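debug: dumping io for the single-chain case to check the tokenizer round-trip. Nothing else runs in this session.
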Amino acid sequence: MGGLARRVQWLKENRKKGEPSLLLEAGDSLFPGEYAKGDIYKKRADYMLEVYGKVGYDAFGIGRRDLPFGIDFLKEQSKKHGVEFLSANLFSKGKRPFKPYKVFKVGDAKVAVISVLSSRPNKMWEAMSISVTNPRPFLEKTVPELRKEADLVVLLSNLGEVEDRNLVKQVSGIDLVIGSGLGSRFKFPVKVADKTYMVRPQSRGKSIGWVEIDVPFTGKKTEIKGELVFLTGVVKEDPEVAKKVKALKKETREWERIHRKKVSSSPRDRKKAAKNNPFLKALEKARKQRKSLDAKGGQGNGTTLMEILKKGQTKQPAAPNNQDSLRLK
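debug: decoded output
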């Protein structure tokens, strides 16, 4: 939650009151891992959602890292803080606990927002009566129906970049994918299908992205532009939120010291583990390459970590022409 105070400050400075906009979260932000345990992590998530409610998030797409304390916890938080959770393929005891999508009126336009998460197995879900289905059948049926009602369709996806790229080639009608989960981060929107763009933020809330879309009411081409803003060292912290986050971090460190366990690995932990594991060593090398691309302001033409690993890529890909890549055809 290190970027929370900076996100709040950025929103205060850049989100104009009364301006037609949506504030969306693609998931994987509440807990440091899928198997997080301990009331301290509930306390952290509670405060984060309190802030989300105060700044006015319109929808929160549930990710895998948002589920370690089950559905009831999220329902309680939604009621307490007024945060709207969405998920189309998350089920509890055979029923959807949250809406699969919501249609928003944004100025003169209607925007449909759908949320999905990855169905990769998780050993805790069965014990909590949680199941996650393949999202493709639902999207194939629902997206065409939403296109009749909405001017734009936005997908909050926790599938991961590779699955997202495959999905939008099979399911047409999605204008924008806001992705979380495994994959790269993009400095600018990347075109991933005929009329579909994708944006992906930095992990752990260290960035915030904005996307502006002109809706073609007159038959003109839709235009899209946007940028990922890296917050650390660039945006000042909101003092009130920063003070609370600092206290929670201190409490978390003390809890972890007492219980002698962490639910997420730091870069130092990953490097230590990689010494005796060839795959992890290659993955660390790919991460460094992605970091180098980001530092130079590019997005590597959307090159994923897995593509770098597969191709053994060592040269930096040419950065795309942003003007061309941001125009729908």
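debug: round-trip ok. Confidence is low (pLDDT under 50) at residues 313-329.
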